[in-house]
Amino acid sequence: MSAVTNGFEQQLSEPLFDRVLIIGMGLIGSSIARAVMMKRIAGTLIACDASEQVLDRGRALNIADEVTGDAATAAASADLIIFAVPVGANAGVARLVGPHVKPGAIVSDTGSVKAQVIAAIAPHLPTGVALVPAHPVAGTEYSGPDAGFATLFINRWCILTPPDGTDKTAIAKVQGFWEALGSNVEIMSAEHHDLVLAITSHVPHLIAYNIVGTADDLEAVTQSEVIKFSAGGFRDFTRIAASDPTMWRDVFLHNKTAVLEMLGRFTEDLIALQRKIRHGDGEGLFDLFTRTRAIRRSIIEQGQETAAPDFGRSKSHQK
Amino acid sequence: MSAVTNGFEQQLSEPLFDRVLIIGMGLIGSSIARAVMMKRIAGTLIACDASEQVLDRGRALNIADEVTGDAATAAASADLIIFAVPVGANAGVARLVGPHVKPGAIVSDTGSVKAQVIAAIAPHLPTGVALVPAHPVAGTEYSGPDAGFATLFINRWCILTPPDGTDKTAIAKVQGFWEALGSNVEIMSAEHHDLVLAITSHVPHLIAYNIVGTADDLEAVTQSEVIKFSAGGFRDFTRIAASDPTMWRDVFLHNKTAVLEMLGRFTEDLIALQRKIRHGDGEGLFDLFTRTRAIRRSIIEQGQETAAPDFGRSKSHQK
Questions:
Q1: Among A210, A304, A309, whose Cβ lies nearest the Cβ of B266?
Q2: What is the pLDDT of residue B1?
Q3: Could you point out which of A217, A259, B90, B168 has its C-alpha 20 to 30 Å from the C-alpha of B24?
Q4: Tens digit of each residue's pLDDT (9 = 90 or more) over A207-251
């Protein structure tokens, strides 16, 4: 464990929850599991997945105290249940485990979309169960149980979007859980979350996927040339365009309105920029290109990005 | 010097050129200068810049054997002259130094645009001077003499675009120069270069600048929220959107046709993708999102990108 984690690996003096169940052992679920185990945030951690292969990996990795394919049974005794599945899978999981959740328990998730996830989960929960949706704004372009790591959430933001009237103690407990994972917590409405993430995450992913697709479809420029000369900027986009296809398909299907709104603005601005190029408006281009530098400076200052040139990667892949 | 440079720092047994002049001490010019000095690629290296402040930094950094503001005089005795200035500045530099270049000397550049750069430089060169335009596809988002480093070009591609009829010995010498800097060299026509770079570099920069601008202009989402939650994907784009505004203004003004062509394709594809979202075409989205993964894999396999999750930056900026 490196010095940058500043003692993160230290165990809590006592667990925050008696029994925690994580459903889904992908990048996010398995990262949460690793951090919960490392810091003993749960008395007992149970991890669950729909795939036999993933369950086997989970057992081999000692990802939790118990690894099971039976979510419904595990849910019956859990105090905190976290759905860490693609957004479109939440309704099915909720239908399966919802009726078994005990009163006083808390259900949460990790989805990148919130309004539709609440609509998918809430109807399946018994009275007395609190729903505190969460979205850890963290990740990498890799997927699956082997891709996770305990420090993924350190100094990242986790957004909670509890519906009106959610039990305040439950909200505080979920906030404490994410703070124990090293995150900063912010609370906002699901609707606002979906708008914020549309511009900070969903549309960026969409245009990254799109330009990689455009480059792949060219006739005048070969794929081999695109690959060779990708260090000119293109390769930056391929990182997020290598993210999990199922997760991202579901994000776009479930945050349609906000994505279309932000995408409309992006396209409008792009057409205006295209017009500046066509008409040789150097001053207009220069103004935009200067303004955009300030935002990166702020992101670095607030610890959300490295200041190392080229993300620091230049040093890691020279042959 | 780290192990990844594999003995790059070793000096040549004899210099490739007697006197080399680099005009412009920005990120690229100062990186070339550092590598030329380290490996003794030139008998004598002269570095030149139009800015007094940059000249002072160049002297303080011992960036070359001689640092001068007088490009015309330096050009008269140089065997290789490299213009490392924003694309739009080439015509002015060529007008200034062209008449002084001695027969048998080679003039080159480092611009991201080639056809218009050749048109800007060639008319000012005396008979007997070879023009071998070059474009090292390498860089970072930082600018100026302090941002350069000697290993910037290792394992990156450098594209040469000599006009028809260029002296073959001159081409081979410039190729040898870039290979000594650690680059792989490819030769193609200026027109094809401009098309390839439009999709691998220019349009990616444009859409990065554009989305940062769109995010900056929102009313419903605050700038503070954009910054906080940028780890969801947005921050990736801010890196290239922090690149030098003068350089990039000039690129778009001088590669207009190819950029507009590639941008037209990008927008067309984006509109089609938008339609898939609006109509809930999950299969269409999934297909694209799967296809794009393969390209990143190839880029990594060919040593043009790191395989480390999140560019490896996760480890470098946790607080």
A1: A210
A2: 39
A3: B168
A4: 999 999 999 999 899 999 999 999 999 999 999 999 999 999 999
Q: Does B59 touch chain A (CB under 8 A)?
A: no
What share of chain B has pLDDT > 90, as a percent?
Answer: 94
Rounded to two decimals, the pTM is 0.94
Residue A1 near chain B (CB below 8 Å): no
User: Is it the case that residue B4 has pLDDT exceeding 70?
Assistant: no
pLDDT in tens, B198-238: 999 999 999 999 999 999 999 999 999 999 999 999 999 99
Cα separation, A183 vs A165, whole angstroms: 24
Could you say which residues from 186 to 225 on chain B have a Cβ atom under 8 Å away from some Cβ of chain A?
Answer: 186, 195-197, 199-218, 220-221, 223, 225
Alpha-carbon dihedral sign for residues A74, A76, A82, A86: positive
The answer to whether A3-188 and A192-308 have equal CATH topology is no
Cβ–Cβ contact A279 with B under 8 A: no
Residue A162's nearest CA partner among A149, A173, A148, A150 is A173
Residue B319: per-residue pLDDT: 36
Q: What CATH class has B192-280? A: mainly alpha
Q: What one-character-per-residue DSSP string does B201-213 give?
A: IIHHHHHHHHHHH
The neighbouring-strand residues paired with A17 are A42
Contacts of B71 (CB under 8 A, 6+ apart): B21, B23, B48, B93, B96, B97
Contact between A314 and B208 using a beta-carbon 8 Å cutoff: no
What homologous superfamily does CATH list for A192-308?
Answer: 6-phosphogluconate dehydrogenase C-terminal like domain (1.10.3660.10)
Backbone angles phi, psi at B57, to 5 degrees: -65, -40
Write phi, then psi, for A234 (nearest 5 degrees): -55, -40
Split at pLDDT 50, 70, 90, the class of A43 is very high
Report domain extents, chain B: 3-188, 192-280
Residues B194, B186: contact at Cβ < 8 Å?
no
Q: What pLDDT score was predicted for residue A319?
A: 36
Task: Report CB contact under 8 Å: B305, A238.
Answer: yes
